[in-house]
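Fold this sequence, please.
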Amino acid sequence: MFPAPPPRLNPLAPKAALVGTLLLAVSGCSPAGSISDADVPAWQATALPEASGSALKGSGKILDRDPVVHGPQEVAAGNYILSMVCDGGGKAFFEVSTVQKDDAARTGAARTEIADAGAACNGSLERYRLRVPDSGRLDVTVSSVDAPLIYAFQLVPMP
């Protein structure tokens, strides 16, 4: 005999599926919380716990694309690991530079870039190896065009 006809779909089913998919996509793109209200020390405690012997470290928020400078800090010559993490989407850049003692307080201080590293702001830890050729004052400038975001970094001597 004849096979049974296929079951008929409710005419609203495709529309309901489309609406459900759109709602899921929109909620997936929304941040879990506001970066401006984030508790940076609490976030840093889990994202980048403090390492012993850290030569330079910092954390904070970039809310309006303005770079943030940490330091200067006196650092010995040698090999270091720059550990970086950020959250909020996009990418953050960490520039490590020397700062001349007599120019540190002036705008446009004489600086020499040692390293320029980036981290994807998805909460994953990034590491960058660098060499500080001479003992002196270093600073780390953190920047991003993907504001708002939160970040943390540490510069730790290599064993």
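The helical segments are 13-29, 40-47. Residues 3 and 9 are 18 Å apart (CA to CA).
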